From TrEMBL:
Pfam families associated with the record: HHH_RecD2
Domain ATP-dependent RecD2 DNA helicase-like helix-hairpin-helix: 198-285
Protein name: ATP-dependent exoDNAse (Exonuclease V), alpha subunit, helicase superfamily I
GO MF annotation list: exonuclease activity; helicase activity
Acidic residues biased stretches: 385-395
Keywords: ATP-binding, Exonuclease, Helicase, Hydrolase, Nuclease, Nucleotide-binding
ATP-binding as UniProt keyword: yes
Coiled coil region boundaries: none
């Protein structure tokens, strides 16, 4: 088993579970136009595109156009968070071995026996980590309560009493945290840095020939002692975004002179961390040891095996046996021949042959925490309902016993299901009433089912909430459930939305339905599951065909693959021509669809310049004229940031047409559409409202935001055009998807599915990729990710 780590974090993903999740059935549409093979030429029904978009045809996007010219997207053009560009290359076997491999095997055994104080054991840490984190949250809640009780002026009741706020109905424990007034929120990634520390780092960077603009990032990453740390270990710059290995080597040679050799232990340590972080950027939570050794060898490290062994022994990475797939034979129980005196050595050799996975502790513990929390929810609900320990289960380790408590839950579920708006909603209600964890899959139309569940649960007296991944999704939920019941995942966890926390720091709720669950990274999933109290019900709902999360892991897909809890597949199809097209893409087909009202329009283009021109024309003229959808409600979705038809080029052309200006505020003008990225995987659309000495003021869906001046360049982009990852979990009345002729290597089925599904009323496809688009839908599945979550889930669920 060999993985490759893509350069700059783009591309190749490998799953240790060897699955992309189980096939989830979707209902095929019974209506629609004549289908066709993805490789067939497009032949629309003769309808032209919207007025002004000449050459457009309603129907199949596949095969339209005659292939664009132009260069491939540049290095920054791969789609941002996690990336989809395949740049991996087989690296071959790593150099080194011998003593290094022996040292690694010895380190593994030492850790497994608990003899290494510097490296925590691979298992058994999850519960302790969760306990510590909950204690920290409890301390934070207590501090907040004390501050509210004292008040800013020392009077009892404090600001909460002054504002007349009360805990949410039905909550227990701590009060609901007050939602801030309409004032700018500081960027989450912001952190006050010591100017003296920054200046000291600038001096060191200048001495090594590195850009002084890295100074603030270095202080944030390495602390106020960053200058001294970089003098002692120049390869520490590899911890900063955008720094490549050759840059770090040059920096080290400038500071250390001839002593900066390729085998320096400091270089080895930094390379291991850099490569593991780069794998995480590509979506992996773990990496097999052979791959890491191969990558270290490719970066001219003389003894890769010794470097990996040292990283394990020092606790820089955790090590696990890969017991999935073919590797599981290493854990098989085999008789040991002890008659010839060589049985122990043979057993050790067999153990050494088992492939090893390496993981950074935060991702390893996050996967352990997700598994621990999910199994805890499955068992605690049944135990709490029965009023006794859950030892009357059905044998699957899920605690789904048939005691009186289970009967009571079924009674609630049946009564609520009887009034459900659809059979699929009724099935989901029954499942959620009887289990602490339920997985729900479906398309856009299926979002109504978890909403119906939350509404029924609230009517039954439960403290129930629905959480979306984005503010755009929360707003759509609020239209069905009301403002009080609809929250974002971020707002729920930080206390600005939802019920707040109980005295033990757990969320004060009984049922939580999380929509857009495929967007959750493993760290976000861990934070969410850890915050839920024993006895709560968690429903994770989402479309398994969409793009994977921007951050490491694939929690929703791994939970589906583990099969440890009830799963409900919606039978509600997405309506209309857009829904029909998207559903077919999910099944690997790109058919012609019947779009009599031009809900789906294909605009063929010949080259990148024409693609940009047509996209601007559609947004500014054609779509508003034909459908009455203004330009500010039309979103352009591109394959990448860079390249002649990336978001940068498209945004420049759209700004010139829709809001021309000199870019007075750091390249932005008042009224510019932007997307604000407060952290990895987060994208918040907004509009520039103005500027202040402190930074750029944005008007976003969730309220005003002030982006500090020093972060504007990195955290804010123009937003008339966004990437598919940035558009995921959001929808607009009209969407223009631009597929240039050089996009073939960046396309895959999940990207097409996600991009095409962002439009509510209209979808235009600017098609220059010719047959590459149909080929991507038919064959281009996203590369898998290496994760451990399926294995950990199954192990914990099997424990009695």
């Amino acid at each position: 088993m060999t993985d490759t780590i893509p350069p700059s974090g783009d591309g190749a993903r490998r799953s240790s579970t060897a699955t992309e999740g189980p096939a989830v059935p979707r209902t095929a549409h019974g209506s629609g136009g004549a289908g066709q093979s993805p490789s067939g030429a497009a032949s629309g029904p003769g309808a032209s595109g919207p007025e002004g978009a000449s050459g457009g045809t309603a129907g199949s996007p596949g095969g339209s156009g005659s292939g664009g010219s132009g260069r491939p997207a540049d290095g920054s053009g791969s789609e941002g968070e996690g990336g989809d560009k395949d740049r991996g290359k087989d690296q071959g076997a790593a150099s080194g071995g011998g003593p290094g491999l022996a040292a690694l095997a010895a380190a593994v055994k030492s850790i497994e026996r608990g003899e290494s104080p510097s490296a925590p054991a691979p298992r058994g840490d999850a519960a302790e980590a969760r306990r510590k984190r909950r204690e920290a949250m409890a301390a934070e809640i207590a501090e907040t309560q004390a501050a509210e009780a004292a008040g800013e002026d020392g009077t009892p009741g404090g600001a909460a009493a002054d504002a007349g706020q009360e805990p949410a109905a039905g909550t227990t424990g701590g009060p609901r945290r007050p939602r801030p007034a309409e004032r700018p929120r500081a960027a989450r990634q912001s952190a006050v840095v010591d100017p003296a520390a920054v200046e000291a780092v600038r001096t060191v960077l200048a001495a090594g020939g590195a850009p002084e603009t890295l100074a603030v990032a270095a202080v944030r990453a390495l602390g106020e002692g960053a200058a001294e740390a970089l003098r002692e270990d120049p390869w520490g710059v590899l911890a900063l975004d955008g720094v490549r290995v050759e840059h770090a080597d040059a920096f080290a040679r400038a500071l250390l002179g001839g002593t900066a050799g390729p085998g320096d232990p400091r270089r080895a340590h930094a390379l291991v961390g850099h490569l593991m972080e780069r794998a995480a950027t590509a979506g992996h939570t773990a990496l097999d040891a052979d791959t890491l050794r191969a990558e270290l060898a490719r970066n001219a490290l003389p003894d890769p095996a010794a470097a990996v062994a040292a990283a394990v022994e020092e606790g820089q990475v955790l090590v696990f046996r890969d017991t999935t797939g073919d590797a599981s034979r290493g854990d098989a129980e085999e008789p040991v021949n002890s008659g010839d005196g060589g049985g122990a050595e043979d057993a050790e050799d067999a153990e050494a042959d088992v492939p090893l996975l390496l993981a950074l502790d935060r991702y390893a513990l996050a996967e352990e925490s997700v598994a621990d929390g999910c199994v805890r929810l499955l068992r605690s609900l049944d135990a709490e309902s029965a009023g006794e320990p859950d030892n009357e289960g059905d044998g699957d380790g899920n605690g789904n016993g048939d005691g009186d408590g289970s009967a009571a839950r079924r009674a609630w579920g049946e009564s609520a299901a009887a009034a459900a708006p659809s059979p699929s909603a009724a099935e989901l209600i029954r499942a959620a009433a009887g289990s602490g964890l339920v997985l729900h899959t479906g398309g856009e139309a299926a979002r109504a089912e978890p909403a119906a569940l939350v509404a029924a649960a609230r009517q039954a007296g439960l403290r129930a909430y629905a959480a979306a991944y984005t503010e755009n999704g929360r707003r759509r939920l609020a239209e069905e459930l009301g403002e009080d019941a609809a929250v974002t995942v971020e707002g729920l966890l930080d206390g600005t939305q939802g019920p707040g926390r109980a005295a033990d720091a757990a969320l004060a709720l009984d049922l939580l339905a999380v929509l857009d669950a495929p967007r959750l990274s493993v760290v976000e999933a861990a934070d969410l599951v850890e915050a839920l109290p024993d006895g709560a019900r968690l429903v994770l709902s989402g479309d398994p065909y969409t793009l994977p999360p921007a951050g490491p892991g694939r929690a929703f897909a791994d939970l589906l693959a583990a099969r440890i809890c009830p799963r409900v597949a919606s039978r509600t199809p997405d309506a209309g021509p857009i829904g029909e097209l998207v559903s077919c893409v999910g099944e690997g087909e790109l058919p012609q669809v019947d779009a009599p009202d031009k809900e789906v329009v294909v605009v063929p283009v010949r080259d990148p310049r024409e693609a940009v021109h047509r996209a601007v024309q559609l947004v500014a003229d054609s779509v508003p004229r034909a459908f009455g959808i203004p330009a500010e409600e039309t979103q352009v979705v591109a394959v990448a940031h860079g390249g002649p038809v990336g978001t940068r080029a498209l945004n420049a052309a759209l700004k010139e047409r829709l809001n021309p200006g000199p870019g007075r505020f750091g390249g932005f003008d008042q009224g510019d559409r932007v997307v604000y990225v407060p952290g990895p995987g987060r994208a918040l659309p907004g509009t520039v409202a103005g500027a202040e000495p402190e930074g750029l003021r944005l008007s976003c869906e969730g309220g005003p935001v002030l982006v500090p001046r020093e972060e504007v360049a990195d955290a804010v982009r123009h937003g008339w055009a966004v990437t598919g990852h940035q558009a995921a979990a959001m929808r607009w009345p009209a969407v223009v998807v631009v597929v240039p002729g050089d996009a073939g290597a960046l396309l895959n089925r999940a990207w097409v599915y996600t991009a095409f599904g962002r439009g509510e009323r209209h979808l235009s496809v600017v098609q220059g990729a010719d047959q590459a688009l149909a080929a991507a839908v038919a064959e281009g599945a996203a590369r898998p990710r290496t994760t451990r979550l399926v294995t950990v889930l199954k192990e914990l669920a099997a424990d009695e």
